[in-house]
Structures are given as C-alpha cells and as structure tokens.
Design goal:
seven-stranded mixed β-sheet; Spore Coat Polysaccharide Biosynthesis Protein SpsA, Chain A; 13 helices; CBS-domain; 351 residues; alpha/beta
Length: 351
C-alpha cells in the first residue's frame, strides 16, 4: 500500500486517527508525521492501549505515539525498500505481523506491505471461534414493547436487533452461533430457524428456568473452541475480529470489551478536610470503564464450568480473578449502545 492515504499529523484528533486506520484495509495502521518528518506507525492496538491509559476520547495522535514509545515495541518493525520478498515473508512469520513498513536509506517510509499481500496471516486471524447471543431476558424495562416480542427481536429501522448482531458475527467469520432463550423463545426460533437463511448455524440453548448471564454457558456441549459472548440487546461497531485477535494474542482466559462512560457533576465540587476547604472544582467530569456486555471466554474456562446452575457472568469473572487467571479488557472506541431503556431504543432508531 502506498503511504499517501495513511499519513496524518501529530495533532490529529482521535476520530481522524481511527478513520485513517479503519480506511487502511488490511494495513490497519496510520503513519504519523511531524511536518515532513516521519515519527511512528500506530495501529488499532496502539489506539486502544492509549485509551486505557487516558480513559478519555479527547486524545490526539501525539498521545497515542507517546504511549507507544513507552511500551515494548517503541518503533515499527521495518525493512529496506530494497529487501526481497523472501525477507518479507520471513519477517511476517517471525514477528506474526499484520503489516510491514518498508523504508528508504534515511528511514523514511515508502510503502506498507500487508499480510494479505504476502499471504501469511497472523496466527490470531485464522483462529476459529464460536459465538453465544444471550437472548433469554424478559426485557421488563422495555414494556409494553416487550409484552409480545422479546427485546432482542425489537426492530431497529425495520430489522430485529438480534439480526443485526447475527449479521455482524457472520461478517467477523463466525459460523456457529448459540442462542440462549427463555422468554418468548418461539418468536426468536420462528424468525431465525436453524440460521441457514442468514449464513450461519444456530443452536438454541433453552433455559427451562432463567440461569443468569453465565449459567447458560454450561449448556454448550462443544467446549473445544473459544466463545465470543454478546448480550442480545447490544448495538456496536466494535471490530470483533480485532477483539478476538487480542484475546488470542495475549493468551487471556477471559476478555471484556469496555466502554468509556463519563459523568459530569452539575455543581461545583468542594474539596475539603473536615472544616478546611482545600479547593473547588467547577462541574468536574468523572470517567469510568464500564462493562459493555461483550466477552470472549476461552475453551479452557468453558471446560471447567460447573454443572447447570444459575449464576452471572460477573461471578465467573470474579472467580477467575481470585484464581489468578488472566482476565483482560479491550476498550471500545467504536459506537456502542446498550438498549436497556425506552429512550435508548428511541435513540437507536436514528443511528
């Protein structure tokens, strides 16, 4: 790939960085320049690591570069533009790369080669995983809309929420989808059937009594594959392949996709020790990383789950942490909407 379309400046805001990386196709990167001087190459992973550090969407390319240069891989792996195809292939295999930067004698970038061009994909791209859509809830807060329709089947601009999720999973390469059901199961089964019409294989996990957000995991018979789990009322543009790829690459036992949630106090906040006022903060903003309802659970975890019983996936996460298992987070900078209230549903119609 020629570098013209992936060059941006140090002062570029986050949205421009994201747009550039997402528009780079398989290259999945942006080249950062300070004027005419090349500074660094940043990837999707670099952006998400910077988000974890700053917990704010108000960051620039400079913030992302600064975070990268404090990490393990401070500069991009590169080769001379005069290097051979055999050298390219060797580097892709040795370093498990998605892209390789070719530079001239002065170190200036000339071209970015992608894994698709060289026909050697990173190991995580070829890894197989299944998915579970949790669709058994009563949707109590959405009544009366959910009196005769389960929440995952409520239409967004004419298309059921769950169909949008299925389409997204299929686009990420998922072919085996489990669906946990309890409330109005027949409505979901009547629409999706075995999934063939939607290009996937759907297997239903019907809960005779509600098993919570984690209990249904024990109903899965084939626990040989990692499992992407998503609530049936989530709309997101999260790159699911990137999410799973990170889980695979860092050898996590469980990954949680997180979203940045900001709350502004509508008053001036007084900072004090007993009677002594230390200062004032006018309408401060607090930021939190929240659970987005999207996870990846490793097959090794699935195989150790207890026999069918009611529990929540948050209980599973707590148990894994106590057992010193590797639980990681993956921040979402893409659109994310949890349709849990009527106002959320109304908002989703305009997206």
């Amino acid at each position: 790939m020629e570098i013209t379309n992936i060059k941006i400046g140090l002062s570029a805001p986050l949205n421009e960085v994201i747009k550039t990386i997402q528009g780079a196709g398989a290259a999945a990167c942006a080249l950062i320049f300070d004027g005419d001087v090349f500074v660094n190459l940043i990837t999707d992973g670099d952006v998400r690591r910077a988000l974890l550090e700053h917990q704010s969407l108000n960051i620039t390319a400079a913030d992302i570069v600064a975070r990268k240069e404090r990490g393990e891989r401070k500069k991009p792996i590169s080769l001379s533009v005069d290097s051979s195809v055999d050298e390219h292939r060797a580097f892709f295999q040795e370093h498990n790369l998605r892209q390789l930067l070719l530079v001239d004698a002065s170190g200036a970038p000339v071209e970015v080669i992608t894994h698709e061009e060289i026909r050697i994909s990173p190991r995580e791209i070829g890894a197989e995983f299944a998915a579970l859509i949790m669709a058994g809830g009563f949707g109590t807060r959405m009544r009366p809309l959910t009196d005769s329709v389960p929440k995952p089947m409520l239409p967004i601009n004419g298309v059921p929420i769950m169909q949008l999720i299925v389409d997204k999973l299929r686009g990420a390469g998922v072919r085996k989808i489990y669906v946990s059901t309890h409330y109005l199961t027949e409505v979901i089964v009547g629409h999706f059937g075995n999934g063939a019409r939607f290009g996937v294989d759907i297997e239903y996990l019907e809960e005779a009594t509600p098993l919570g957000t984690g209990g249904c995991l024990s109903l899965i018979k084939d626990k040989s594959r990692d499992l992407l789990v998503i609530n049936g009322d989530i709309l997101t543009d999260l790159d699911l392949k990137m999410f799973y790829g990170n889980h695979y690459r860092v050898r996590a036992d469980l990954s949680i996709a997180t979203s940045i949630f900001s709350v502004q106090v509508p008053y001036g906040v007084v900072e004090a020790t007993e009677a002594n006022v230390l200062g004032l903060r006018e309408k401060p903003v607090s930021r939190y990383l929240i659970n987005s309802g999207v996870y990846v659970v490793s097959s090794s975890v699935l195989q150790t789950l207890p026999a069918t019983q009611s529990y929540n996936i948050t209980d599973l996460i707590d148990n894994l942490i106590r057992a010193k298992r590797r639980v990681v987070q993956f921040p979402i900078f893409e659109r994310w909407l949890d349709i849990g209230r009527l106002e959320d549903y109304e908002s989703a119609q305009s997206t």
